[in-house]
Amino acid sequence: MLEAIRKRSAGILVKLLFVLLIISFGAWGIGDYVGGGGGSNTVATIGEVEISTQEFNTEFQREFNRLRQAFGGEVTREQARAFGIDRRVLGQIVNRILVQLGAQDLGVSISDDLIREEIQKTSAFHSTIGNFERALFEQVLQSNGLTEAGYINLLRTEMSNAQYLGSIESGVKAPRSLVNRVYRYRQEKRTADTVLVPDSSITGISEPTGSELTAFHKENAQRFTAPEYRSLTVVELQADELAKEISVADELIKEAFENRQDEFNTPEQRTLQQMVVGTELDANIAHAMLVKGDDFATVAMTVAKMDAKSLELGKMTRDKLLPELAEAAFGMPQGGFSKPVKSPLGWHIFRVSGIERARQKTFAEVKGDLTKELAREKAIDGLFSLSNKLEDALGGGSTLEEASQSINLKTRKIANIDARGLGTDGKQISGLPKGKFLETASQTEESTESQLTESGTDGYFILRVDKITAPALKPLASIRGDVVNAWKAQQRIKKGEEKAKAALARLKGGADFATVATELGTKVSTSPAFTRFPDGSLPAEMVTNAFTLKKGEYTLARGDTGYTIARLKDIQDANPSSDKKGVDEINRLLEQGLKVDINSQISSDLRKRFPVTVNQATLDRLFQ
User: Fold this and answer.
1) The domain 228-248+365-470: what is its CATH number?
2) 171 Cβ partners below 8 Å, 6+ apart?
3) Which of 91, 180, 254, 416 could share a disulfide with 576, CB 3.0–4.6 Å?
4) 568: which strand partners?
């Protein structure tokens, strides 16, 4: 999306669009689901507008690539879907179209001049000296999987959507009395004198008796219970594996080369320079100077204020330029310059500094790739035949081992795998088939074979559940050390609580805090001022309790490492008039909440006019 392209841009429109997208997704969701249409290429319909599988896949892949980059590449499409990326992407597309339809109803339109201005002020496209740089513009679009025309269309849509929503939300204001009241509640601060009774200070815990340990083991059975494990026999049919064993005749490779000549054409590439100006008058002045014989870089600096570096577009093919620009750039000889050409970005003049003519790759250059491709195609075709033979053999009474051996497939034994794909050692079992393997293994009965099931896009698997080991409490003898340690930890917590409660009772009875702390082997500490929202420095329960106390009153709360006794020391009322920045932030949050409510109402109205349906079967098919 455009947010990624403009992530370093500080433009008002960028911030507005980012907020609107977040709000609209949170408030609007996706829509109604339908179950049929397995063969459809439409993922969703908004009124009469359809979202194609290609459009969804393009945006999903863009988000998927960002997710993989964030996690170092260790993410699959199935995991991305588990994270909800598919719903988020579809929700963004649906919401964008809904708002677009609403904007069209109101006649909202964005001119080419506004598009050009927005692109040229986007800092992601600026050189180090702050100028718009065409080469950087092309590079950023390419890295985000966008063409120039596609980007301009997307930008035009989002700008009209922002104008539409902005006009509706422009009057949203949070009442000042509400802002001040919320500010006082959120920013009130308190300090407390505290003493920690750590679990580690509780010593002298004796060894548990046999009966105590047995009882603790049973009472905490869930803690010490192993999950259900299944032992499996698995057969996989994968196109990539089959392809390694398939040879392809030279005649077939040559035939494919002859039939697919267009694929092996390298289109003409031109090394281009480009100057861009905002008005036709400046473009004509620059062109006249070039006709007179002035240097292209000199004219660009004089008229367009573009340095030599920002002129370079590099090597370009026709399809990388807008049609009107491509016609000009590819219609002149090497060393020549074009007449001024208008686009949504401004007025362009090109100069050709180099030409690489179109050429045809030779058979030798593409033979290796063609061989692999043809072998894989034959493997995919062979999968259907192999799967039928495997099912016929099984239907004829053969065991899974016998059936797989008859068609030269290997079986794999997987001992003790749980529903998450983990072994008894708690580690992930590697090399599992893709798709719904774990789900299939969990749903297949013992001593029974599953159906032949798709594994990814070009493969199948079939499995047999050889044995099911039901969830069972681990024998005490096998984990005695772990159970003893857990029992002792629980005893320390209990005795620590008793010690802290006894100290609290003395304090409430009038004992001196410092004296009690000394007897506990510690000192009284004063906390930093804290608000109602815990930051982890104090137990969350203690923070909550502290805002119910009067000065000098005590409370007790459990933390991660022990019990904390606290005495409220001071209350600091919040003053809205002394913190303009904080009040403004509260105001922003409240207004954003109000806008969410307005968006919900807009959504309800738009969905009545343009009903949203999602084809779940088609969506599921994209991830099989």
Assistant:
1) 3.10.50
2) none
3) 180
4) 192
